[in-house]
Amino acid sequence: MKLKQSINKTIQQAFEKANISEIPMSVSEATKPEFGDYQFNGAMALSKKLGKNPREIASNIIENLDLTGVLSKAEIAGPGFINLWLNSEWIASQCEVAEQDERLNVQSKENPVKVVVDYSGPNMAKQMHVGHLRSTIIGDTLANLLTFLGDEVIRQNHIGDWGTQFGMLIAYLEEMDEDGSVSLKDLEQFYKNAKGRFDADETFADKAREYVVKIQSGDTHCLELWQKFIDISLGHCEEVYDKLGVKLTRKDVRAESFYNDALAHVVSDLQTKGILQESNGAQCVFLEGDDVPVIVQKGDGGYLYATTDLAALRYRAKELGAKRISYVVDARQSGHFKQVFRVAKEAGFVPEDVKLEHIAFGTMMDKGGKPFKTRDGGTVKLIDLLDEAVEKAKDTIKDKEGYSEEEIKALAKIIGIGAVKYADLAINRESNYIFNWDKMLSFEGNTSLYMQYAYARIQSIFRRFDGEIKGNIIIGDTLEHRLAVMLLRFEDVLDRAAEDASPNQITTYLYELATLFMRFYEQNPILKEGVDEAMKMSRLQLADLTAKTIKQGLDILGIQVVDRL
User: Fold this and answer.
1) What CATH number does the domain located at 3-86 have?
2) Range(s) for CATH 3.30.1360.70 in the chain?
3) How far apart are CA 481 and CA 476, in angstroms?
4) Is the pTM above the cut of 0.90?
5) Choice among 165-179, 180-194, 492-506 with the minimum mean pLDDT
6) CA neighbours within 13 Å on the CB side: how many for 188?
7) pLDDT at 105 over 60
């Protein structure tokens, strides 16, 4: 449920009764339990407009507040804050609704929109490396989140599959083994070998240049070789996607070649609209306030990334009907996207009501604060990193009793992959972060393993409980009250994370929820002998709703839970 919306509605009714026409500002979560569950600071903002003391305004609001429904108590604090306490009976009833609902009472959007999420973007001439990790998992999480909230999400994997290098690559592939599976097993080495051949053999270099022209002109043989290279390269990517558990598929690929025929039209349309200028032989768009122009066609007739991105934006807005287009690309491309978005809007390629956003993210760093590399300074292949995560997870749990070798293997994959994803998603996406195995595979702190352990611990309660859960939820003390309120905040957290494209808001919430439940579990016995039956049933429901919320939150992040740990 939208908890803030319910509180704001109650405050709005108080405003109407007090004959205050201004719309109140939104409430915010209280920073300490003694300040209530939420705080309202609108009185201070209204004091200048109404010419009254903020405490006088706050007092007037409290006098007209309904304290029999959503709220049970309100107090003035400081210069005009209003501390608000939720009604325990009301929050108990709302938790009961969430407990019985498969969506935990998270409502689907009333007015869903089409959203394009562009992420991952591997290079077809190289295997995926750690630099692709953040785009892939942040993008997949955003797509999962928006889908869960009701939007129609179109996943797009924009790959570089066009250009002069492909003549060299397919010419070399033609000389290798028949199906290409052996020669392309290591894409990095394949590229180096092809480049070495190109540099050393002029005859081969001429053939490669000839093949570029043939690809662009639609030569059947060259296109077959090109398609074989792309298919095998994508196979490498799909192996990574499978290990990561991300939902990108072959049908989500929208490569540079897809927009190739539209590039000339982009340039001619910009020319027709009168926003194109020639500069040193190149066709450029000069944006007000920017010293560097957006080049859409070079002097030799070649097109650039900006041209392809403009074609993609127009296709996504006009053909797909997207109202929000999100590019999950590292922060170094911020300047590029600002310019391309401005050109797309000024040229009318994208309607004004379409939201264009660059979901920027920082860099994964090693312990020394430098970009993550292999020991010899090379690029870390993503598949190798994920395999290492699984092995390290296996070392973490290998001494646990009661598991077969197969169970340890399956558990290690869930824990290892979850640890890598959660560690990335748990920080502000725009920040750089230090990659640390010990920290991400710890049972303590804001880690995936801590969340999985919390979920498993709740499942162990139900394995010991023999019976049927019935009765109502009863809020018996302050800790139960806080846990129930935290559970009801889930939808507000998801909405905020979706609006800001910030998965770390979800991880922060899950960590706070799990930590609060652990305190609740320690101080409020559930199955202990002597616990009142009605209270036991109530606490079992709160425990179950907590587990369901953790599971749903981790599912949005693309992380699995385990029943035993």
Assistant:
1) 3.30.1360.70
2) 3-86
3) 7
4) yes
5) 180-194
6) 8
7) yes
